[in-house]
Design goal:
- 42% of the residues lie in helices and 4% in strands.
- The chain is mainly α.
- It has one domain.
- Strands 1-2 form a two-stranded parallel ribbon.
- Strand 1, helix 2 and strand 2 form a beta-alpha-beta unit.
Length: 103
Amino acid sequence: MAFSSDWQVGEMDPLVGIYSAATRAGLDLADATPRPLADVHDLPPLVVTVCDRAHEELGDDHGWLHWSVVDPVPAGTVAAFDATVRELRARIGAVLEHTRRAS
């Protein structure tokens, strides 16, 4: 599931932080539902893991990318979640730009 095991009582609920940061960034996650990877049958051609623990458990033999991104859940602040969104947007933008130039 898409939860962090580092979440402690009293910190921002991870899902509230994720959905709120997405909304502030103009992303609609209303229909997005965290689910186990085993339940995803049609993987896209490019998969990027951003959770170090997931990357370690899955291993490198899938040919997926891994971006080690700071988990905003332990900080539990609006600023931490927004910083994560900005970092991911920048990285995605760089991949898209590289792909555009290569084609």
